[in-house]
Structure prediction request, 133 residues.
Amino acid sequence: MINYKVNAKVDLIDEMINPIISSLEENKADHKTLYQMNLVLEELLVNVANYAYAPNEGDVEICYEIKNKELEVVIIDKGKPFNPLEHSDPDLKAPVEDRKIGGLGIYLVKNLVDDIQYQRVENKNILKINKKF
Prediction:
């Protein structure tokens, strides 16, 4: 598994995502998978950058592996506890003006990956996603 740490800042999102996308390209992932994983990773990592440590700063640890046409990514931060799986999906049938703000990104993530798991261990948020391609 490849492992690296980056300061969890929005302006460093490309530094967080590019190694994974490059590895997917090297492993012949199709354009749809590349687009979906870029969207998923950006959503998850922007959330860490904006909310995990606010108003302070901290690092995000990213681990990933590609095996048998499947990507596994683990995102670890020591920020505030946040389990995205506990949040209910937005009501997509409600008129836009009646919908609550937020939640659409997590909904997209849950629907674009094959598996997503969360745990809080030793004051760390650990989010694991898997995507077959």
